[in-house]
Predict the structure.
Amino acid sequence: QQQVKQSPQSLIVQKGGISIINCAYENTAFDYFPWYQQFPGKGPALLIAIRPDVSEKKEGRFTISFNKSAKQFSLHIMDSQPGDSATYFCAASTNFGNEKLTFGTGTRLTIIP
Amino acid sequence: EPEVTQTPSHQVTQMGQEVILRCVPISNHLYFYWYRQILGQKVEFLVSFYNNEISEKSEIFDDQFSVERPDGSNFTLKIRSTKLEDSAMYFCASRTPAGGYTFGSGTRLTVV
């Protein structure tokens, strides 16, 4: 019940296109859903996060869509750029992020020219 | 921007040896964590630490593991007798009560 399932495992998108990564969870106690970006040899860096009282959050080219009833959330990267090529992890936590993070399995995103 | 600093960046050790991974969290953060990432796999929670004691640990964090904050700035993870399956990237993270996590760049531990 603590799992967070992430898909796809890898994604190739053309420059300027939209990258979409999906996650699903089972634990209804989760109330904080961040996305992390990880470059090779670096730690995960917080990209954007959402709480279940809203269905969408946008920061620049990055948008989280959240569907509470389906227990799903997704990351959309608009106008994808080669610099966005990285591994993306969704995660979930309880107590509004004050507890441990449970990570998804990661998506390796490659943006091609 | 404040950073979580981890040393060393890469540690190679023989099976059965003890290793200590070091972290300097962000100075005003109160909550500290260790996570690990086996190559190509997801990031997994190991342990959380608050107010000088462990607040939660995973089933991975068995008796071979220990954490310490010896001097108010460093936060260490000790593995007493390393096994081949301990080979992974180990990430330290810290956060404020209201803020998100900040992760360090990790220590790559290779057990041979």
Notes: Residues 33 and 50 of chain A are 5 Å apart (CA to CA).
